[in-house]
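Today's session is about reading a structure prediction critically. Students often jump straight to the picture, but the first step is always the sequence itself: look for stretches that repeat, for charged clusters, for runs of hydrophobic residues. Only then move on to the predicted structure, which in these notes is written as discrete structure tokens rather than atom positions. Here is the chain we will use throughout the hour.
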Amino acid sequence: MLVGRASFKEYMEGLKRGWMGGVNPWSLEADVKRKIEGDGVFDDPATAQLRDAAAAERDSAAANLDDPSLPSNPSPVPSNPTGLGFLSRPTPPPFSPNNPNGSQSAPSIPAHLHLPPSPLPPQPPILFLPYTNHMGFKAFPYFIYQFFTERHRVRAGSEAALALIESNTRPFQSPTREDQGVTTDPETGKLTRQGGDLDFDLEGESFTRKSFKKFPSQIETARKDYYDALRTRVESVLDLQAGRRQMTDAELSGKTKVEMIDEMKDERLKKEMRWYGGEDGYEIVKPEQPVVWDPRWDGWLRVFVKSDDF
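Below is the predicted structure for this chain, in token form.
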């Protein structure tokens, strides 16, 4: 049961990722951890300076080795010029879909297992329920109209329930050759046609508020504000652990909680998971984004219909 076009887009995107995206193990938490690890957010500034100095020294040594004007057998560069062994550890293998942990011992999944089954397994029939979310002052006339015409919504809900009870279905109407190619409004960038059942509730999507476009920038602002505040918190904890400051009276009395780096890492991971999920979801449901379709799905899906439409 898909209520509105946004739900339709999410469902079709889920079909694409689930059946056409291979069988590699994946989790949002692991993916976000991989993206943010090693970015130095929780590094001690003093340690970071030593690491940067070591990296600059290694880069300089590598450049000298490539310089043809230098002797062919230059003196060897010390493997640990700073005396900090953890700064000179070898770089782990790069991430790959078949090896998400970068470990050479992780088993590789054969390529043929990533191919979707043919034919695709049957899916439950889809029940389309159009829904337009009128919001804002300009939508006030619609509120008045809907108040006096609630009978139309009641009838639509009753007909949908009857379609489920009778279980009459038809094949999902895929885009025809004439429909192929997404059509958009040159002024707004919103979709005006995809073809077939992919045009479900397209009119309702035209009422999406302009402020919805600000959603990515709102996430960017929230992320920036969080990291600006986090930098001060991390420095305070590291200074306390390194003995560069003493506990305050509020911390000693328990009025102010003494934060720990591990707790802040967990907090940051949860926020990044929410931000990454929000950004991904926005790209799926934004008005200018078409509904996902794959030609191999032709004849695969079915749609509930009323008995008089059967």
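Discussion point for the tutorial: The two ends are 18 Å apart (CA to CA).
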